[in-house]
Amino acid sequence: MCIFKKGFNILILIGIFMSILAVGCQDKSMLKGVMDTPNSDNTLVWNLSSGNINTWDPHFNTYSVSGDIINQLFEGLTVLGENGYELGVAESFEVTSNDEGAENTVYTFKLRKDAKWSDGKNVTAEDFEYSFKRACDPTIGGTSADLFNTYIKGADKYNNGTGSKDDMKVKAIDKYTLKIELNNRTPYFMEILARQQFIPMRKDIVEKIGIGWEKNPETCISNGPFKLISYNPSSDLLLSKNNYYYDSENVRIPYIKCLINTNNDNINLMYDKNEIHVTQIFANGDLKSEDILKTNYIGSTYIVFNNHSNIFSDVNVRKAFSYSIDRKYICEQVYYGALPATNLVPSDIKLSSGENIEVKRKSDVNLYKVQSENSRKLLKLAGYDNNFPEVRLVTQNEYLGNSIKSMIESNLDVKVNLIIVSYEELKEKQLKGDFDMIIESWVADYNDLMTFLDNFKSNSSLNFSRWSSMDYDSAIENSMKSQGLNRDNYLINAESILMDDMVVAPLYFYNKYYRVKTNLVENIKSNVMGKLIIKHAKLNLKDISSLNTDNKTDGLINKGAYGFDDRNRIEEIDKNGYFNDSANNRFDKYLVSNHFEIYYSSSNENNKIYASNAIEVLEEDYDRILEFLSVEEKNMPIIKISMYDEYEPLRQCLIKEKFFDGDTMERLQGMAVYSNAIYYTYKYKGSSVDTPTTLKHEFTHNVTMALAQDNYHPDWLLEGVAMYLAQEKDKSEPYYEELLKNGIPQMYTLKKNNKDKYIYGYSMVEYIIEEYGREKLVELLMEYGDIQKVLNISEDEFRDCWIKFLEQKSK
């Protein structure tokens, strides 16, 4: 008995495509020269980001998602394809020695003469020279200078003020010839050139407009397959095909609408209704569907400790905190499909031999499983004995942050102040060092250890840890002068120095998954670093009217994964004699009461009686459950109930709609979906179930979601409340001693998918009501289980009090 997702008010979302024309900052003259104006037949809708995007100027952007925009608008000397780098604006190149005889350090590129800007002007070598030197200009305060300093000779002198821009060895030899000299031989330099920081820019535009040039369609002159048509801050960007792009005849998508700052609650429903065609997803139980695209993403998520903080200046403290984290739990319950990380660099980064780094390095064995006792000893070694100060953990991700907070408080007995911030606030706190711990992620720009290790050099502007090591810097510097096995060894040693000092607490490595409407969009692929390749995709949106005609509402497809099938079922039965669910199970009868509609099949002559009994049970307890949870009747929708007379049809329907696998649903008897739907069976594999309890349990979920619809409730609270209200006549059940005997789990393990969340949750809810009162339980539901905020104690303190409650009850 469970719900699938956090509360979700399912209203038919309209206006996605209507809004394409009603966009801000739009130059309508820019629509001329394309075949059509943007509409639902010619526009790919890409859900790009749940966060906001404030810049896609490559020399100021540090956000991976903004890089997706840059990849559509611009093209560098090289681009990344499915199998590695490919030539972009560069038509050919040669690599030679420099004047001192250092081999393979001078690159000379010949540019395509048909490469043009979106206003029709030629892309020249001068555009690249200007852009590269702008990145290192010390007066603009950009974020990409470190990259150029690392690789291009003289860039560091220009950037640090000891030289001029002429010292930077990037030179336009003529209009279509560009020469670049490197500090050291760099085998992966052609991949480096595909990074967003190395795109060309138009000096006449950028110098005239200054900061913000890229946000205005009139001044965002680009040279890639698409151009900017409009930008609606906090809403969307609209791109159109760039007819001046040298390969424009193979760009088949007229428009791309990139949604930003989207509400995660709405994404899956919008996808089901074909209002979104491409969206990133977190890995879930079914990654075999035809619409799942797994990319070659190399990413790492970790906690950065602020070494300038008095708290984390001691390596023993950093290790204590790192050892207290349950990485296995995070990867199995928080981010399914991720891999527990015991190092900074993801395990599939390649060495010079082609082998993965994992085969050559060692990991700290203490990171493989929680080391609670060892962690507490390390704190004592650092001079702390039950007097450790509260620490500030900063993150964008509230779900992951809460899990980490629970683990540290449970396993280390240290209070954590969780600070949830926007992306912009996160960046500001990084730069200012305004944190004790901060959760960060880094995605590889090229398949080499340096893409991760370069960030922790002492002089790196991305070294937010404020940590420095002469040995580390020396290992990085020596790697730049080496090649092959020697280079590998220097870099492996550098990572070892970083991890021995526990500068970061690695959490997990991950892949990136997308859902792509493959019946509407063809040929979307990903490059070697997991970024989507859109320019050769093709739309079939005009065929939308022929799809799934049995399941349409107002022309919008309304069934499928993550979305409750919210058709007017009574109308369908009255008109057609039946309706079919997602697994083609047929319902041809219904009953209606004041608050419920129940649908069933006439194939079993007893089903009408069962349906009538079900409605009677729910109506009898309707007022009691609403009153207990402080929900007014006017705030409750009509509950639509699908009654199955066998277990397997229910299971198949919910697998089809929810992407749940068979194991997850092995004991399923009922499911509440959002605040207005219940699916249940009165038989479980041939045996009768306790139907009244099942129905009241699931209806309690409906009411809970009507109470607080905006976020995720921890499972122990959600299921505990449902258990408590469904079994109100059996609260004297003597199970306390059994719970104590089996052992009381840590709080964070009961937050998701723990098989014991029901019985433990029941007792926790009982404790809250007896100790704090019903009102506090309701407040806790409205605050999504934030114990510290509502009850003014830590989760660890709550657990201790709950255990005492169980001990008292068991006497």
Secondary structure layout:
Elements: E1 2-3, E2 43-47, H1 64-73, E3 78-80, E4 85-87, E5 90-96, E6 106-111, H2 125-136, H3 145-151, H4 155-160, E7 170-174, E8 177-181, H5 189-192, H6 203-209, E9 226-232, E10 236-241, E11 255-259, H7 264-272, E12 278-281, E13 292-294, E14 299-305, H8 315-323, H9 327-334, E15 339-340, H10 372-381, E16 391-395, H11 398-412, E17 416-420, H12 423-432, E18 437-443, H13 450-453, H14 470-480, H15 484-500, E19 504-510, E20 513-516, E21 521-522, E22 525-526, E23 532-533, E24 538-539, E25 552-553, E26 556-557, H16 569-576, E27 579-580, E28 586-587, E29 589-592, E30 596-600, H17 607-628, E31 639-644, H18 647-658, E32 670-673, E33 677-681, E34 683-684, E35 687-688, H19 691-707, H20 715-726, H21 736-742, H22 757-772, H23 774-782, H24 787-791, H25 795-810
Parallel strand pairs: 1-32, 2-11, 2-12, 16-17, 16-18, 30-31, 31-33
Antiparallel strand pairs: 3-4, 5-6, 6-8, 7-8, 9-10, 10-11, 12-20, 13-20, 14-18, 14-19, 15-19, 21-24, 22-23, 25-26, 27-28, 29-30, 32-33, 34-35
Keywords: Signal, Transport
Pfam families: SBP_bac_5
Subcellular location: Cell envelope
